[in-house]
Amino acid sequence: MQTLPLVITGAKGYVGQRLVKELEKRKFKVFEVDLIGQRAFDLSKPDAAERLSGYLPDNFDLIHLAFPFPGTMGSNRMTDLVKSVNASLLSLNPGPRRTLFISSTAVYSADSVLEIAPWEVYGSLKRQSEVQLAGLGNLSILRPGTLVDRTRRSAMAALYLRAISGKTVLLPKNGSLAHPFLHVDDLVSACATWSETNESRNLES
């Protein structure tokens, strides 16, 4: 089966590094886009699309992982950053044949009445990005839950790992709170499978 080269944003991140390794193992030609590395690209810069045009192949599929993590910056800065990155992706010429956007289960519509807190801003921007990136055409959306593995350090991941090890866990709201989890390897596998399907129709997961 013939597949196109893959462009991965956030290629040096927690998921990105694993995904690149898996795709290369499956014999994909991978183009990495990240703030760090030998070829650093800042997608929030006004000239990002122009700079990338000299680096990317003429035909490619895109997996968009790059997204600021909640609490790492102020709400206004995060909003401006995400809008700038989305604008750069929409300005790519040529653009991707297909795009897979890694969103989140924690998405909120723009008209939701929410406390302006890091996770709420994050969720709202994920949802806005889903709408905006539809302009790329042939957009697939994957909404994973909280990512876990033995090396990941977060409150929710720690809760999950404690539970599966058989230790006592105190659950919020008397245990009535439902929360989705996904192992990092399963997310990587899902992205790699999408890459291999070679379908050009619109999908949403």
Architecture overview:
It is a single chain. It is built from 6 helices and 7 strands, in the order E-H-E-H-E-H-E-H-E-E-H-E-H. The chain has helices spanning 14-25, 48-53, 75-90, 118-132, 155-164, 184-197, and strands at residues 6-9, 30-33, 61-64, 98-102, 139-142, 146-148, 181-183. A 5-stranded parallel beta sheet has the order 2-1-3-4-5, with helices on one face. The protein has a two-stranded parallel sheet with strand order 6-7.
Q: What is the residue-averaged pLDDT?
A: 82
The helix fraction, in percent, is 25-40%
Number of strands: 7
Shape: globular
Question: Could you give a quick summary of the protein structure above?
Answer:
The chain has six helices and seven strands; from the N terminus they run E-H-E-H-E-H-E-H-E-E-H-E-H. By secondary structure, it is an alpha/beta fold. Helix 1 (about 15-25) packs across helix 6 and helix 3 packs parallel to helix 4.
Keywords:
single chain, 205 residues, alpha/beta, 5-stranded parallel beta sheet, 13% strand
SSE blueprint:
Blueprint: E1 6-9, H1 14-25, E2 30-33, H2 48-53, E3 61-64, H3 75-90, E4 98-102, H4 118-132, E5 139-142, E6 146-148, H5 155-164, E7 181-183, H6 184-197
Parallel strand pairs: 1-2, 1-3, 3-4, 4-5, 6-7
Helix pairs in contact: 1-6, 3-4
